[in-house]
Design brief:
It is a single chain. The protein has five helices and five strands, in the order E-H-E-E-E-H-H-H-H-E. The N and C termini lie far apart (30 Å). With 86 residues, it is α+β, with helices and mostly antiparallel strands. Strand 2 and strand 3 form a beta hairpin. A five-stranded mixed sheet has the order 1-5-4-3-2.
Length: 86
């Protein structure tokens, strides 16, 4: 069971910026989308360049159905002290 109260610093998130370990931020939540990239490799060229970054604008673009799929990739939150992500 994933502990959604786990807090990650921006420094930790920025360590996961490759196809082998790809994390993104949306709405102050941290998503490990590594497995998503293996299931949907056509998204690699769009997602990996944004790894370690805030992709809230991209997230908001998605349908309710896709946002629901994102839920399973959520691993925690950005630490409040490091929420100055733009």
């Amino acid at each position: 069971l994933i502990n959604l109260f786990y807090m990650y610093s921006l420094q930790e998130i920025n360590k996961h910026t490759t196809i082998d370990s790809c994390w993104v931020i949306a709405n102050h939540k941290v998503y490990d989308v590594t497995d998503f990239l293996t299931i949907h490799p056509e998204h690699v060229s769009v997602i990996v360049p944004k790894a370690g970054q805030d992709v809230t604008q991209d997230y908001l673009f998605h349908t309710k159905h896709m946002k629901k799929i994102w839920q399973k990739y959520c691993i925690g939150y950005v630490q409040p002290s490091s929420c100055s992500v733009s």
